[in-house]
Give the backbone structure.
Amino acid sequence: MKKKTTTAVLFVLPFILFFMMFWLIPFVYGIVMSVSKYSLVKGNQGFVGLDNYIKILFSSSMYNKSFWLGMKNTVIFVILTTPFLVLGSLALALLLDQLPDRVRGIFRTIYFASYAVSVTAVAAVFVWLMKGNGGYLNNLMMNLGIIDKAIPWMEQQPFVWVSLTVATIWWTVGYNMMLFVNALNEIDTQLYEASSIDGANFWTQLRYIIFPGIKNVFFFVLMTTIIASFNVYGQTRLMTQGGPGETTKPMIMMITSTIMDRNDLGVGSAMTILMGIVIVLCSVGQYYLTKEKEELR
């Protein structure tokens, strides 16, 4: 018995060590910094309590404006991308599920391949495609006579949000699609056959067979997509640098600017903690909403 216990501990120990090193200790240290006057140059200059949080949430300082603007831009990005990344990936998975077996693997690889591309390459490609002057998309549409003058995809709103949304969807939709594909494969095909005999069409099967069979994966994809969208950074940093103005500068870019440009690690850490609280509240709220719906059924 003692030998089994020792073996089990040895298997669990690496996880515990990495969990403490890369999550628990940084998290605790981040909380300590968020209640301190902390800079990259001078280090910890003492405990300030909740002053950093008050600066962010209730004062009229630049930190307050940066935080709420960053949160607003992040929420806009979440609202624009999440429906396409969840429902769009589900639609792709359903289409793949209808293809013959001999070609299904080919299209699965094609759709998933974009996820393997780095964000740097994705940004470079879409800047080339959607640049206002000389971009491939504008040149193509002008040559076809669809538009008379170039559309400022990367220079003016709301076109910049369109560019970021399209780039993000193209880049990440394949990952969610694969999760849905695996979930669809777990559904018993006899259910489809029995429902077809009873005269059920696709929408009836979707409501009573497909969605109940994949609902756990659906809510998992929804939650992870929202969290991932809240953590957006690479696309906006590389494609727009947060512009035009600061209209696409997300929360993480605001935090980075606070720490690196304004040399205020304490306020930056407090912003990070507040952003984490918002993400947790969204996740908990979504969990209870879906739980209530399941109980009503």
Q: What stands out?
A: The chain has one domain: 60-296. The chain has a mean pLDDT of 88. The two ends are 45 Å apart (CA to CA).
